[in-house]
Write a structure and sequence with these properties.
binds the ligand Nc1nc2c(c(=O)[nH]1)N[C@H]1C(S)=C(S)[C@@H](COP(=O)(O)O)O[C@H]1N2, about 200 residues, alpha+beta, binds molybdenum atom, about 30% strand
Length: about 200
């Protein structure tokens, strides 16, 4: 009886912010990097949005800071099963950048590239409508280098491998094109609430 009572209680106290199969990492934010961590000079770094757009555009670090700033407050979920709950990031909404380039109607996917060559892919509708950001602060402080500083992509409603660190280019495409982890078996969308960890999930 005691065991059943305990089981029932732990189930009912599971944090509703945790998607299935995830655990709360507490205050600890793990680092997951496939390549060597680059040392980027923000004054030489640029962000380009190109592909199927009316007018491709490149922003410098300074350009980005002149745009309306936007904050995300919420959770992030890594496919290796940790979630970091109730955290915050600051930067610009991707809606602001996409407004400037004006995606053409055929644009349906985005292929994301980091300065290191890391890549990932997302449906365009998953980075519009207040769902994705280019961020350079975490909890009000500059984004640490190992977490993608100076600048990373943040798409918190999908597994965190979509949130490319040291992002430098977003290319809008008509057809989906797999990135680094997707080619290695990870899911093309990666919705943590549907546990889309691997191709076929
Ligand atoms: N450039 C780059 N971005 C990346 C990765 C990477 O290896 N390289 N790993 C991804 C994965 S699998 C995760 S879980 C998160 C980890 O971000 P963090 O190290 O800041 O926790 O970054 C994603 N973005
Ligand atoms: Mo990850």
């Amino acid at each position: 009886m005691a065991t059943r009572g305990f089981t029932g209680r732990s189930r009912s106290t599971r944090d509703p912010r945790l998607p299935p199969g995830q655990y709360d990492t507490g205050r600890d934010w793990p680092v997951l990097t496939a390549e060597a961590t680059p040392r980027l000079d923000p004054d030489r770094w640029t962000l380009t949005v190109d592909g199927i757009v009316e007018r491709e555009h490149t922003w410098t670090w300074q350009d980005l800071h002149l745009l309306p700033q936007s904050e995300y407050e919420g959770d992030i979920h890594c496919v290796t099963t940790w979630s970091l709950l109730g955290t915050s990031f600051g930067g610009v909404s991707l809606d602001t950048l996409l407004e400037a380039v004006a995606p053409r109607p055929e644009a349906a996917y985005v292929f994301v590239t980091s300065t290191t060559g890391y890549t990932t892919n997302l449906p365009l509708e998953h980075i519009t409508g207040g769902k994705a950001w280019i961020v350079w602060t975490h909890e009000g402080k500059p984004l640490p280098r190992e977490h993608g500083g100076p600048v990373r992509l943040l798409v918190p409603h999908l597994y965190f491998w979509k949130s490319a660190k040291w992002v430098t280019k977003l290319t809008l495409l008509e057809h989906d094109k797999q990135g680094f982890w997707e080619r290695n078996g990870y899911h093309d969308l990666g919705d943590p609430w549907r546990e889309q960890r691997y191709q076929g999930d």
